[in-house]
Amino acid sequence: MSDHVSPVGLYLTIFSALMILTGVTVAAAYLNLGLFNFPVAMVIAGFKASLVVWYFMHVKYQSHLTKLTVATGLFFLTILLGMSLIDYVSRGPAFSVTPRPINADSVIDKR
Amino acid sequence: MSNAVAQADHGHAHAAHHPALQHHFDTMSQQKEAAVIGMWLFLLTEILFFGGLFVAYMIYRVWYFDAFAEASRRLSLFWGGLNTAVLIGSSLTMALAVRAAQTNNRKWTVNWLVLTMVLGCVFLGVKVIEYEDKFANYEVPGANYNWLYHEQHAAAGGEHGDAAVPPAAAEGHRQLSLTPQQLQNTTQIYFSLYFTMTGLHALHMIIGVGLMSVITWMAWKGRFDAQYYTPVEMSGLYWHFVDIVWIFLFPLLYLVERHQ
Questions:
Q1: Sign of the C-alpha dihedral, residues B13, B17, B22, B24?
Q2: Which residues in chain B have Cβ-Cβ distances shorter than 8 Å to A12?
Q3: Contact A22/B84 with Cβ under 8 angstroms?
Q4: Residue B103 confidence (pLDDT) above 50
Q5: Average pLDDT, whole number, for chain B?
């Protein structure tokens, strides 16, 4: 049977780690890390999510087939996020937030 | 006759195995693994379901970063942080409910499940408080949306003290690249995503609490034991998934450029 019974202490440790990491996320958001604020927040969130998946959701104790199923989901999520963002971000600022006057000259490019 | 032997064997096997073992599975562990993989496949569709919203969020965040940074400050870090703690706590109680089911402890399976539902309802209650604040401050996208209302109201000494920085400080703390009219337009995109993502998450919470009330009733009736607790474990997987979604929503929605 795959029924691994985790000790209560492990669950409490994971819970404490998740709470501490939440505090770290908030604290990091108040530091000026420049470009790294966003990656740091996402790395911490990703680590917290991994703890939940691995220990609370018992993926650690599941078969290779189940692990592969979980990994497949992450793979397709990466494609969804990665490919979409590569497409949009590489086009440059798609919308200028500066309002442009709408008149005949600006609608039809007469160059 | 071999057929008769097979029949007899089959009858014998039925007498020996667990009553919860379905006819088309050989063993309990095979049945359990089928359920686990099936549940994970469902969660994968959920991951991609939320994934579409995360993509929309990321693209608009890149395009209208300043608007997102300004609008994010309108959320209360206190309520957001409290809800994160409540949800992580409910994941712990859910994990302990599964553990109690694994160890044949009917009483604590029920207790932990009830506590998980209570924490889920606390989360939803806090969400109601937050949404109510957004409605009261005209921060719900639509015809009545008014970006400036909050600061004018705070200047007049309003009771919504959460993000109540005096307008002067609000102007001074960072270089605003957007005019009030641009903020009026672009921050609605942020709040549209805020309500869609947290609303869909809250819907999952409501479904989760409903699911768990059925599981709690089944546990109360003594339907589970150490060999068969699959429904408890499956609703646990669902609950933890909803928790993970919030783990990402919290920094994305509440913590955009807080440091400036």
A1: negative
A2: 92
A3: yes
A4: yes
A5: 87
Tell whether the torsion through CA atoms of B140, B141, B146 and B147 is positive or negative: positive
pLDDT of residue A100: 53
Written as one letter, the residue type at B223 is R
Q: Which residue has the tokens 């604290």?
A: A27
Tell whether B236 lies on the interface with A, counting CB pairs under 8 A.
yes
Give how far B2 is from chain A: nearest CA, Å. 31
Fold held by B36-254:
Four Helix Bundle (Hemerythrin (Met), subunit A) (1.20.120)
- Residue A93 burial (CB < 10 Å; 0-12/13-18/19+)? exposed
Q: Return the percentage of chain B with pLDDT > 90, whole number.
A: 66
**Domain ranges for chain B:** 36-254
* Domain-wise residue ranges, chain A: 7-60, 62-92
A81: nearest CA in chain B? B55
Which string of DSSP letters, residue by residue, matches chain A? -------HHHHHHHHHHHHHHHHHHHHHHTS--GGGHHHHHHHHHHHHHHHIIIIIS-GGGS-HHHHHHHHHHHHHHHHHHHHHHHHHHTT--SS-SS----SHHHHS---
Distance separating alpha carbons of residues B72 and B139, to the nearest angstrom:
12
Residue type present at position B45: T
CA–CA separation, B229 and B222 (whole Å) = 10
Q: Which of A18, A31, A65 sits opposite B88 (nearest CB)?
A: A18
Quick check: B258 contacting A, CB < 8 Å? yes
pLDDT digit string, tens, across residues B30-40:
899 999 999 99
Model pLDDT for residues B58-67, shown as the tens digit of each residue: 999 988 889 9
